[in-house]
Amino acid sequence: MNKLNVALGLFRMLSENREINARMVAEYFEVSKRTAQRYLEEISFLPSIHRDEERYTYSLTEKVTLSDSLLKSAEMSFLNAVLGYAKTVMGEQNSPMLDKISKKIQYAGNSTHQIISSPVIDYDIVAENHIKLEEYIENKLLISFYYEKSDKNYTVEPYKIILHNGFWYLAAGHNNTLKKFVLEYIQDIKSSGENYSEIPQEFAEILSSAKSMWFEQGENTKVTAHIGDVAASYITRKPFLNNQKILEEHRDGSITIKFDVANEIELLQLLSPWIEYISIIKPDNYRNFFKEIGQKIAKQNS
């Protein structure tokens, strides 16, 4: 095993434990106790290492702390899980780069994290646009492109590249409005050579609080709904909806909540996993929309 990686692993163990011994090192690196003892002896000469001759343990001297300078094992495991997830998103083209990053991290231990990814559009379809947009966003450059979906040309301020439900989007400013564009429909991207200053604060706040891709500017609608106990147990565990507020908790485990949505489609997308447990109280047009959806589903499955 690479000596640098062994040394980093040992210092990580020392930063997480008051003291370590050969048995702990052997388990961490999955080596024999004899090899582990050799690893410890190789760093014992360092002035920052204290060796207890009677207990055969090793620790950092009191004046040395590494708690804020090295990632802990759980953090390393989570980072490796993120890199694994990134490989499923970024495609084969970027796998070698991500593998190289993983090797540099050299996490010695069993991974305790796994991120389950949803199906993602083939990255090769959007790779060229993705790479160009990264550069233009980083340098705050105005860009122009042809958008196949609406058969129009646009000049925009590119702000963010977003991955949502397996599709890539560009969030950009156009005519003082925040808009989204699907990356696979963007063609012939060109830089105008001009810079924009910063993403407007209003747009930045909209993007940071977005729960779906229906974040474009406009008045949000406040919706009040009754949520059955099965769905309530999930929705109450995290702020799943925009400006989510529980108005009442009922004895049967159900709740009455208020939240914001951009339109009926966003409402359906956010609540569709629990649609059978949800009753829209107001406004009436959203209640009627949900009722019509239910009738269509019943008719198609009758």
UniProtKB/TrEMBL annotation:
Name the domain of life this protein comes from: Bacteria
Name all WYL domain ranges.
132-190
Q: Residue ranges of the WCX domain?
A: 221-297
InterPro entries per the record? Answer: CBASS_pafABC_assoc_protein, WCX_dom, WYL_dom
* Transmembrane segment boundaries: none
Q: Sorted alphabetically, which PROSITE patterns does this protein's record hold? A: WYL
Q: What protein name is recorded for this chain?
A: Transcriptional regulator protein-like protein
